[in-house]
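Summary for the lay section of the report: proteins are chains of building blocks that fold into shapes. Here we show the chain for PAT family beta-lactamase induction signal transducer AmpG and then a coded description of the shape we predicted for it.
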Amino acid sequence: MTELAGGTRSWSDAVKPYVQKEPLAAFFLGVSSGFPYAMIGATLTTRLAQDGIDKKAVTAFTLAFLVYNLKWLWAWMVDGVRLPIIGRLGQRVSWLLLTGVLVMAAVANLALVDPAAGLLQTAYAAILVGAAGATFDIVIDAYRIETLKPEQLGVGSGMSQYGWRIGSVAAGALALVLAARIGWHGAYLACAVFALPAMLTGLVLGEPERHREAAARRGMGEVWQSIAGPLVEFFRRRGAVLVLCFILLHKIGDTLANLTFRLLFDDMGYSNDEIAIYDVGIGFWAYLIGIFVGGILYARMGMKRSVLVSLVLMCVSNFSFAALAALGKSNWGMAGAIGFENFASGIGGVTVVAYFSALCDLRFTAAQYALISAAASIVGRFLTGTTAGALIERFGYVDFYLLTTALAVPGILLFWLMMRAGLIDASIGTAATADSDKAGGSAT
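The coded shape description reads as follows.
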């Protein structure tokens, strides 16, 4: 992106990348990616609660989300298995259509079960939505990365984040509105149409120009190579181990903090209306603004510096909640902390996602991004989710948020050291290179 001039031209230059066909495609892909998550998240929780299901059983349904952390186990199929008949449309487009249909079928199945009559069947249905949604995500992420040009990774990641947030919120809101009028069965069936934006995007744009076929899979040896190939290729890069450490560690402090915001607000005496206004309302718009700013920072500052800035901002956002806890109940303080946290998260959602996208080899886009995204969240879901409450009880909110701030520092230092050693440039994959021909060849 060219340097921004003053006046009207600067706004024109800032907005132009967002209306190109590739970032717009990323937006529609994001809309479809976000809705299955909403169907088994707050929407299902509300449905179960309204059906009189016990709270312990309701919270147990969050285990359906663990399927998203396991998607790397079958992501290689999206890269290496050619579908019969519809495979003629292209590897990515055919899988996009298949998984879109599977998601719609899984949501329809969840719509038709009756939680009050069969809770186990509802659990199975929720897990099926999770599995279908995770597979849909694998294809969507690969399609997004291979459709975007290297210089569009930042803006495209931002548009994908916009789409994800809007898709999940819109699907959840539509389900609630329709459930009050036609019941939960009809509400879930109607929400299944949110799979269509990604499917139509694939049909309109066709196969990504930068997609590179992996080797054909015929025997068990070749299948094993398709599974091991993405890992072997990644760990052959200089600095791969440090990059993996960064992926695993960079969100621990942020995850710990985010898990506890509602606990803090409740203990500080905020009403539901105040939480809705400041947490949901201000937070939502601050996040969207952060996404826009993140895209501009990525284009202006480049990948490395923009990621480093976003990591620092997310670290400081944790400190803002320590300040809020020390200050006591304050609507202005809550608005500032929530606004800044969501703004920083929006920027990080663009720059860090763009960096993770840049790590992919175009022969293994689906498998490698599935591995990276799963690794980035698995520590938070399995480790921090079990310790946050105990840490608050032991240290109190102020010291707890100071701890989360400190836990964010190692990720910042590690990334800075990798920048200084040249390991960021050495570790990126062909998704971030203009010469995509370097991605050709068969699987390792």
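Put simply, here is one thing we learned. Residues 1-9, 436-444 have pLDDT under 50 and may be disordered.
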